[in-house]
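To close the section, here is one more complete example, presented without commentary so you can practise reading it yourself. The ligand is protoporphyrin IX containing FE.
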Amino acid sequence: MGYDEKIYQNPMDFDGFRFVKSNLAKSNNTNNEEASSFVDTSDTWHFFGHGKVTCPGRFYSSTLMKLVAVHILSTYDMEIVDKAAPRSKMWRTTNNPSKDVRVIFRPKA
Ligand code: HEM
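Output:
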């Protein structure tokens, strides 16, 4: 579903601001919807499941993932050793970070 062009524009391209933009559009009331959050679920967003079996741990994991990301980004400067190396690998229907990519972490000065 995440690779369906009818749902997501240029689905195979990494766009770190993909959902930020759609949330901004929504919060500007262009379609009278409230901005959505990472833990919302919908017919087209199944990261945490949907309906009766929606993940109850999604609020905890969402907050934890953001805290870890903020900690890493504010503590280290990072550099990919081989910039041309493939960064991800497909496994079944999921696109996962490649374990072969080496990254240097340097504490921020
Ligand atoms: C990034 C982290 C997580 C992801 C991606 C995730 C994803 C999911 C998904 C997709 C489902 C629905 C499965 C289905 O359709 O049958 C689910 C269900 C569930 N998750 Fe998570 N989950 C995460 C973290 C957690 C955590 C931290 C907890 C508990 C502390 C948790 C507890 C559960 C439980 C109990 C269910 C079953 C809900 C039910 O059947 O009523 N999950 N999760």
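Once you have examined the tokens, check your reading against these statements. Residues 37-107 form one domain. The longest helix spans residues 58-75.
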